[in-house]
Write a structure and sequence with these properties.
The complex is a heterodimer. Chain A has 19 helices and 34 strands. Chain A is an alpha/beta fold. The longest helix of chain A is centred in the first third of the chain and has 20 residues. Chain B is of the alpha/beta class. In chain B, about 50% of the residues lie in helices and about 10% in strands. The chains are: A alpha/beta, B alpha/beta.
């Protein structure tokens, strides 16, 4: 026989102001099986919890119903309190009479009637509760970080410094990501590569970090604590352990000046065997087989091989698949810049001196194609007038994306400032929609660009850029004065919008994490769980989540790392027991459940008799992956799946309670 | 394919050269089009700034007639006409309430998926490059031709679904087929001032002047257009612009159909090339000269 306690919370006047809590308590007391009914001002307070625990003891309760706020708020609090008195925590049910009643209704009488109904439903449910045990998943205490930009490196270093092994996978030949391409950083103007390279070196030398560059994650299966990862290490054609990074090979390569440098955003050329930049980590070249004469002309050229002292060039190296098992993953794949071909009116690609912001960074950079001297691509002359155009693709739902790319206002101000510092007597113009400079020191920085460095800011958009007698004519609107303006510039820099790294949607599908319509990875909760993905054990960092600047990327890398260190501080991971459960006797092996499961939690399980003969195949739920969402329950034709804590009989009992 | 022809007012009046040359080259290519019977005004430019329903109903009536007569495709050579027809079709397709209102008031059904083509779409898509190329008897090689698109052929891009709205190339491709050299310049889609020609001629002269002087600077012998209003601004206002800015232009403005006709070897008189304000004699002589050189 059930012995149920009902506790009605006032939540101060939050509930009691609209619901007659005493009436709810009185109605509760009338229900068969309810042995105790109580109302109290704040059930979540210590005295509230204590009275709950006392009554469990006194009345030897078998189930508890709290008519209170949403279970998202305090279900855990009350479950823990009940567990302390030896009651299985899943015998605690919540009737939400705050968010679903008092906060949304005004008529006290009808609100009270609804609260009574919800309470009755939960009483009928709790009568049918069975004990549920939480699932414990063992943890492989090793982490995988995908993407070796600043966010990924920060995450890897923090995890490694916490004493946990990390595998850092980077697609490009070197780690460093976008940050190593930048010149100086706003608002402090410290040199990006000077603060980045120490981190890259540290990551490379850290005893707890295993670095795979020029590698890609090929496949991921498993679940929190136990992810099986396949990493494709692309054939570098150079034996890493023997290479000294001396540079004889790329100096010998006849393909110089033939291939556009990705690192310098097409502003310079590279050889077929190359390191993307002098401070590359690891300083081991990669042979680009798509352009190498050895591979294109049937093995005739081997100049790099001949030049190599330690003879570490091996044309026969093949792609290698490395398998690893990790307990947690950080996805920090970074960003790309939007292709501006939809802005034909700006002539990007047509006019050599219309360049992107990232290209301008390379022109500013001491390691760039012009060694830090600003020279325009067309004729190598130093420009005297530059027009900067912000929001090219950003905040433009018609042609680009509706969101703000966040970093462009600041880096454009930085560009204009550095231009003024490097070319004295020069003039820059900035077309902007709004200026967004909200972090520490940012507004002052932009002001400085305007007031000390003399950049002329024009609020409006550019309608057209065309060439006329060696000048780029920029036509635009100055909406503050209401005039149309035309500026004859030597160079134009477009602040192109930020988009997720190409292929990040495919990676998200492989990881089973959600992403938004633009391809940015989605947080589990935008405010309260910003480092977690929708899948347990997979964490997010950096621009892969959306536009952000360097400090925010560093913070997000550290946040992901601390989450993983926290997870690994225990030996097992506890998953709520309210997960799907298959009745193997009735399962007809249609596997429709497998098709609807968004978390890849359902696999096929073979049932064999003692002699090893296959009797039948049934669906099997992986407790590490199942979130208890219930999609499989609905999909099951043979009614063979239930979610624990939400069994059919419980749901029917709730509905019946409404009918009487 | 059954092809309907919607001439609109310009081709029957101020831009008769456009119709004459169109019909001539179609005859040469053996392509048959039928004028939509009892067609009415497409509504440009007044209707859509005054009454939305009317701006859809006027072109919709023409489309409904074409649909009733079983046409699969409508050619509207005038850029404004094709713009209005496409707009109406787009709105009727995407707004059921409006569609009911319009078809009720027209007392005609309209459910068609008929393709509506501007001149360039028709030539490249329906006629085809191969056909045109095979017709070129008198290649215009050596002639430099600037294609001016204006605004209506490509905008709004969502509705027109034609070419790159900021850097269209279809007309340049047609020019290349004739053997002439397409001239790249900066103001292909810049506004010519359109109908302000009557109310604010100074504005039009400034805008059209920009376009013409840019074309001149890039070394073109002549301009081709596919829009009667563009033509009228570039051609009719040219002398005034020259006087105002005190700089000679002397740029004949031909319809694309006329240029094709010349390359087909059709007599310029039959193409009504003598109907323009800026005489094309010098260009015609150059063509003859080039032909004699070969």
């Amino acid at each position: 026989m059930s012995r149920i306690g009902v506790f009605v919370c006032w939540c101060g006047s939050n509930i009691a102001g609209t619901v007659d809590v005493e009436k709810v308590r009185e109605e509760a007391a009338k229900i068969p099986g309810v042995v105790s009914a109580l109302d109290y001002k704040y059930m979540c307070s210590d005295p509230g919890q204590n009275s709950l625990r006392n009554i469990i003891k006194e009345k030897n309760l078998t189930g508890i119903v709290l008519a209170a706020c949403s279970p998202h708020m305090h279900e855990n609090t009350f479950r823990k309190a009940a567990a302390k008195e030896g009651l299985n925590p899943y015998f605690v049910e919540i009737a939400n009479i705050r968010e679903q009643v008092s906060w949304v209704h005004e008529d006290k009488e009808r609100a009270t009637a609804k609260a009574v109904d919800l309470m009755k439903m939960m009483v009928e449910k709790v009568k049918r509760d069975r004990p549920i045990e939480d699932v414990r998943v063992p943890l492989n205490k090793k982490a995988l970080v995908i993407g070796g930009g600043i966010a990924g490196i920060q995450a890897a270093l923090d995890i490694a410094n916490g004493g946990v092994e990390v595998i850092l996978v980077e697609k490009e030949p070197s780690i460093g990501g976008r940050m190593i391409q930048l010149d100086e950083t706003f608002p402090t103007l410290d040199c990006s590569s000077c603060i980045m390279t120490p981190k890259m070196v540290e990551a490379n030398q850290h005893p707890n970090i295993k670095l795979y560059t020029y590698s890609e994650v090929e496949d991921i299966s498993g679940y929190i604590g136990n992810f099986k990862v396949k990493i494709k290490k692309k054939a570098r054609s150079v034996v890493e352990k023997d290479c000294t990074g001396c540079g004889e090979c790329w100096n010998a390569c006849p393909m110089h000046k033939n291939v556009k440098s990705e690192f310098n955003v097409n502003l310079s050329e590279r050889t077929a065997i190359y390191v993307p930049f002098p401070q590359a980590v690891p300083l081991v070249p990669v042979l680009d087989r798509s352009v190498c004469l050895h591979f294109k002309k049937g093995g005739k050229c081997q100049k790099c091989y001949d030049a190599c002292g330690p003879k570490c060039i091996n044309f026969d190296l093949q792609d290698e698949i490395i398998e690893e098992t990790v307990g947690a993953i950080v996805a920090s794949t970074g960003y790309d810049l939007m292709d501006t071909s939809m802005y034909g009116e700006y002539g990007y690609g047509k006019y050599k001196d219309v360049i992107s912001g990232l290209q301008f960074e390379r022109l500013l950079s001491a390691s760039g194609p012009t060694e830090g001297v600003i020279k325009r691509p067309s004729d190598g002359k130093t420009p005297q007038t530059i027009v900067f155009v912000q929001c090219v693709g950003s905040r433009d739902p018609e042609k680009g994306v509706p969101y703000c790319s966040k970093v462009c206002c600041m880096y454009t101000a930085k560009h204009a400032k550095l231009f003024a510092h490097k070319v004295h007597g020069s003039q820059s113009y900035v077309f902007y929609i709004d200026i967004r400079s909200t972090s520490k020191g940012y507004e002052e920085f932009v002001r400085g660009t305007m007031e000390q460095d003399g950049a002329i800011y024009l609020r409006g958009r550019v309608s057209k850029i065309y060439e006329d007698e060696g000048k780029l004519i920029v036509k635009g609107a100055d909406t503050l004065s209401g005039n149309q303006v035309e500026i004859a510039a030597d160079m134009v820099v477009l602040a192109t919008g930020v988009i997720p790294k190409k292929g990040s949607d495919k990676l998200a599908q492989m990881l089973g994490i959600s992403y938004d319509k633009y391809g940015f990875f989605t947080e589990s909760h935008p405010k309260l769980r910003p480092a977690e993905s929708s899948t347990a054990g997979i964490f997010l960092a950096g621009m892969a989540q959306g536009p952000r600047d360097i400090p925010e990327s560093v913070v997000s890398g550290s946040a992901a790392a601390s989450k993983i260190l926290g997870l690994f501080s225990k030996n097992e991971y506890e998953v709520e027991g309210t997960i799907a459960n298959v009745n193997e006797a009735t399962c007809v092996a249609c596997f429709y459940c497998q098709r609807v499961c968004a978390y890849n939690a359902i696999s096929k399980k073979e049932i064999k008799d003692r002699s090893g003969k296959l009797i039948k195949v049934v669906a099997n739920v992986n407790p590490g992956l199942c979130t208890g969402c219930g999609a499989c329950v609905n999909a099951c034709f043979s009614k063979s799946i239930d979610v624990k804590g939400f069994m059919d009989d419980q749901i029917y009992a709730e509905i019946k309670a409404l009918a009487v | 394919m059954k092809l309907a022809y919607y001439p609109g007012c310009s081709l029957k009046g101020t831009s008769f050269e456009y119709e004459v040359s169109l019909l001539k080259i179609l005859e040469a290519m053996n392509i048959e089009i039928k004028e939509i019977p009892d067609w009415n005004c497409c509504g440009a430019s007044a209707a859509h700034s005054i009454n939305h329903n009317l701006s859809v109903a006027l072109p919709a009536r023409n489309l409904a007639i074409a649909e009733k007569d079983g046409y699969e495709s409508v050619l509207a050579p005038c850029a404004a006409c094709s713009n209005r027809l496409k707009n109406a079709a787009y709105e009727l397709k995407n707004d059921d309430i409006l569609k009911k209102k319009i078809t009720d008031s027209l007392e005609m059904p309209y459910d068609s998926e008929m393709s509506i083509n501007n001149m360039l779409e028709f030539l490249i898509g329906t006629v085809g490059k191969d056909k045109i190329k095979s017709m070129v008897k008198k290649p215009l090689s050596g002639l430099k031709v600037a294609s001016y698109y204006g605004c209506l052929l490509v905008r709004p891009p969502k509705v027109m679904q034609f070419d790159d709205p900021e850097n269209p190339v279809t007309m340049d491709e047609l020019v290349a087929l004739t053997g002439a050299e397409p001239v790249d310049y900066s103001f292909k889609t810049e506004c010519c001032g359109a109908i302000n020609s009557l109310s604010k001629p100074d504005v039009v002269m400034a805008l059209t002047g920009n376009v013409l002087y840019d074309i001149k600077k890039h070394g073109a012998d002549l301009v081709v257009v596919a829009c009667p209003l563009c033509h009228s601004n570039l051609d009719v206002r040219q002398r005034e612009i020259e006087r105002k800015y005190d700089e000679k232009l002397g740029l004949p403005v031909l319809f694309i159909t006329e240029l094709l006709g010349l390359s087909f070897g059709i007599d310029p008189k039959d193409l009504a090339i003598d109907g323009h304000m800026v005489a094309a004699d010098r260009v015609l002589k150059k063509i003859e000269g080039l032909a004699n050189q070969r």
